[in-house]
Amino acid sequence: MAVLKLCRSKLRHNYNHIDQVLRERNIDWGIVTKLLCGEETFLKEVLALGVKEVHDSRVTNLIAIKNMAPDVQTVYIKPAPKQSIPDIIKYADVSFETELDIIRLLSEEAERQNRTHKVIIMIEMGDLREGVMGDDLVDFYEQIFNLPGISVIGLGANFNCLHGVMPTQDKLIQLSLYKQIIEAKFNIEIPWVSGGTSVTIPLLFNHQMPKGINHFRIGEALFFGLNLFTGETFEGMHDDVFELSAEIIELNEKPMIPIGMLAENPSGESFEIDESLYGKTSHRAILDVGLLDINPKYLIPKDDGMSVVGASSDMLVVELGVNEQNYKVGDVLNFNLKYMGALSIMNSRYIAKEVVE
Fold it and tell me: Which segments constitute the Alanine racemase N-terminal domain (predicted)?
């Protein structure tokens, strides 16, 4: 069985690095745990870091978090579905909202449960996923700020989640100005402007982060140390908190091009023959992991002499060239992962999950 490993020391190193940078700038932040898919072994490692706030997009994951750490502030990071409202009020201290009718229902449920539910209003800033249009914000706020059981604690925005729109200093200044408009219009104070995510961290390091942005939600940078502007690893951070290990179940020297008439494979892929490879061979290994678990494009071999050929539902094929490492059947090959690859692996019940030091 393939194994996904989480390195405890590397996770803590990345956490301490981010925490120091944000605390020096008086910025509050929480960890986005949706990547972990409610896996309690890994969630315990995150909670052991001393985090005070956890963000997730699944109510079941928030339930697990609340059961493990009742005092941690839980944040539901998408607009609430109607059928989930009772559980969101019970298990999410905060939610991101964009719909008046939903906030009214949250208010009614909060009253029933004798709770105050905190809300961050998400504003559309160009990526065209969730968000209230800026021109509608004042009217939107006017209709909810006096609702019983509801406390608006912030305005927020997402970037790079759907159409790849990147954050800029100007966009974040605009987000901060919305807060000032609301505060001046209604003579109230909104504590947070939540414009910080993993994709905005480079602006922070480059001293381009407006002072009004005082809340961050961070997942990808914590687990992968990735600068989403450059595609490189942030200096002083680890890119291999996660590692996938998979066993070689076959290893043979084979031709480098397929033999016979070609058609689409079950994944809908078609292959073209590279005639320069006729007569050439390479060592090919089959690993005990496949498309049910991960798309091969999200795998990064740790051995530079290895390349991923492709995968079927349950098997991954890698090319080893002349096999300089003298791999054999039963050996384990290791891979770093991209974010979407780790997400797939976390969702696979066929992959074991382990914590290593």
Answer: 9-225
